[in-house]
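worker-03 picked up job from queue 'complexes'. Input manifest follows; two sequence lines, order preserved.
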Amino acid sequence: MYDAWKILVGLAIFLGLFTFAFWMNAGKAAPIPEPKIDTPEIKKMAEAERKCVEDKHFMRTTHMQLLNHLRDQALREGNREYINQEGKKYHISLQNTCMKCHSNKKDFCDKCHNYAGVSPYCWDCHIAPIEQPKGNEL
Amino acid sequence: MGVKVSLGVSLGVVLAIVVIALVGGEVSALQPVFGIFVPYAAFVIFLVGFIYRVVDWGRSPVPYRIPTTCGQQKTLPWIKQNKIECPSSTLGVIGRMILEVFAFRSLFRHTKAEMASGNIVYGGSKWIWLGALAFHYSFLIIAVRHLRLFLEPVPFLINGLDLVDGMFQIGAPTLYLTDLLLIGAVSYLLVRRLIVPKMRYISLANDYFPLLLILGIGISGVLMRFFIRVDIVSVKELTMGLATLHPVMPEGIGAIFFVHVALISTLFAYFPFSKLMHAGGVFLSPGRNLANTNRAKMHVNPWEYPVKIHPYEDYENEFREKMKDAGIPVERE
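worker-03 finished. Artifact:
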């Protein structure tokens, strides 16, 4: 090969860049996040009533679009009533409805958001709940 | 091949991949094939094929200097040399390569011939340069952004890139600027081939296919992010499995994800065999990476060997007696 060392250095950089993720992850396991749904408010509910506004699959995949839509409906159209697929009515409010059950931002929202590298801009306007770090309770 | 055939074949292949992945993605027994086996196979083909092509080029001799000279070469001391457009030193070549690789200098030189009041006039035409730049950089940013699915914890810089890319906070999930740029730029590159008669004339299926493939990747990605949502946590479970070499196939990932992955896998596997190899080729292009020292230095063809010669003096030494016998005059007795 002509100019062998130059080409080999180039190929080493190429290989390094493209297999970067493998080296970074070598010997590491990536635990799947488990968002916690064991807040006092959820525990108070009877088993059968422990449901979010829509079904689990829809909420897992599409909650951000629902939240965005509800934000527009509440703040831009002034309509704070949401009727879900089952016909049940909810008052639209992140802090008083959503966060009433899911009061554990750190153990619920942040778990998956950090894992997936998502930084939602909810907290640009809303005040994040103050939570005691685990094991540090007074 | 006419444009109908070239475009038809390319579109047909891309659509066939989409349909196969759509059908296969719905069958849970086939999901590991589309989610694990195909991506790994495509990635290995890409790495091995890419290295093979580069080594193959490296083994090809370039006996003499053939740099493209785009400026005044080094000459008499009072004539100013263009050190980057016609480099005579390694430093100049490095400068030229940096401009070529990062700023597409040669596309910036693109001109368009037009008739103006009976005369032919050459004017600068920067659209192809701008389109190529927008396409390559948005594709790069999109690829780097996808590292959030292959690294855990997600590095600060990747999160930062995500935030900057979605900085207008349009909708949730936020609209990425690079998504718009990539689809816009690829569409431009495709439309340009289709509507400019000269471009259409020289375009082949292997020009249309990569453009349609990348357009398909962009569209399926945008669909998955904004319209046909999939559970990103399950997706990352799969991609982290691939990156840690402990592949797992989580349940409940929508078929659109398999379409996206099948198209990307096709791009990876197709890459080493296609014009896309210009990614490696630009570095090995002798028109760019050689200093213009054609006459300043002695360049010897590497396969030149001492040619056997038989000059008249040797000839006469060999046949002198016979020549004398035959009465042929000789120079030396």
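worker-03 released lock.
The domain at 3-325 of chain B is CATH 1.20.950.20 (Fumarate Reductase Cytochrome B subunit).
Chain B touches chain A through 45 residues (CB under 8 Å).
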